Automatic annotation (TrEMBL):
A molecular-function term among this protein's GO annotations: phosphoenolpyruvate-glycerone phosphotransferase activity
Reaction(s) catalysed (UniProt annotation): dihydroxyacetone + phosphoenolpyruvate = dihydroxyacetone phosphate + pyruvate
Keywords linked to the UniProt accession: Kinase, Transferase
Lineage: Bacteria, Bacillati, Actinomycetota, Actinomycetes, Micrococcales
Signal peptide, first to last residue: none
UniProt GO cellular component terms: membrane
Protein name stated in the entry: Phosphocarrier protein HPr
Gene source species: Cryobacterium zhongshanensis
Quaternary structure, from the entry: Homodimer. The dihydroxyacetone kinase complex is composed of a homodimer of DhaM, a homodimer of DhaK and the subunit DhaL.
Statement: the UniProt record of this protein carries the keyword Transferase: yes
Length: 246
């Protein structure tokens, strides 16, 4: 029914993209694989004979192929695609159904965010949450804003963490587009300390891409707490390297 899903050395949450168009579903898999090459992603687009519409059989087969035991997040484009996906879930056994969710998220933005969350090892709730976070971006609302920690009140005020900030310049010719943004977010998620980029959550792909950072942009990295300096330095080094593109 589609290209074979990649086999990851570690089981990850899988994804199924349900669209009325087979070309859209397949193209979305191609796009998301640029950022999440180890994730099982299956297109379920079009009718059984690839006309415009949806296919119960394609959705059911996609869920089966995408499931590596960690669960599957299903994303849909239009209302009737959701109905088809819900029908497919009704025919699953109870155990399989318990680890399949249909995310209430815009198809393209949600798929990209979910793919990156799955690639870095997020569990089923985390991947679904990443997909749903795309609704804020899709509606134009700010996404991924992080509160600024209180400033150090000075000597004698224990328990206040030190904030480390560093500004670097983006050198990529095409700016922080999808592939380097995904690489950046993947690293940020492993650092064990919250980091912001120009005030946005460094571990949120849509928040970072929403900044629209182009070549020459000044990128302010900030982190607070134990390991803040190492985290900021690691991300700054990645930006200064040009992500292998410059």
């Amino acid at each position: 029914m589609s290209d074979p899903a990649p086999v990851a050395t570690v089981a990850l949450v899988g994804l199924v993209f349900v669209s009325h168009s087979s070309l859209i579903a397949k193209g979305l898999v191609d796009l998301a694989r640029q950022m999440a090459p180890s994730v099982r992603m299956l297109p379920a687009g079009g009718t059984d004979d690839d006309r415009i519409g949806t296919s119960f059989a394609k959705v059911a087969a996609g869920i089966e192929a995408a499931d590596a035991g960690k669960g599957v997040v299903v994303l849909c484009d239009l209302g009737s695609a959701i109905l088809t996906a819900e029908s497919a879930l009704d025919f699953l056994d109870d155990e399989t159904r318990s680890r399949v969710v249909i995310a209430d998220a815009p198809l393209v933005e949600g798929a990209v965010a979910a793919a990156v969350a799955a690639q870095i090892g997020g569990d089923l709730p985390a991947v679904e949450s990443a997909a749903r976070s795309a609704r804020a971006s899709h509606s134009g609302a700010p996404a991924g804003e992080v509160p600024v920690p209180a400033a150090d009140a000075g000597p004698g005020h224990a328990g206040v963490d030190t904030t480390v900030t560093r500004t670097v310049t983006l050198i990529n010719a095409d700016g922080l587009h999808a592939r380097p943004a995904a690489e950046f977010v993947t690293l940020a998620a492993t650092l064990g300390v919250p980091v912001t980029v120009n005030g946005r959550d460094a571990a949120s792909l849509l928040a970072i891409m929403g900044l629209g950072l182009t070549r020459g942009a000044r990128v302010e990295l900030s982190a607070t707490g134990d390991g803040a300096a190492a985290a900021v330095d690691a991300l700054a080094t990645l930006i200064e390297s040009g992500f292998g593109e410059a």
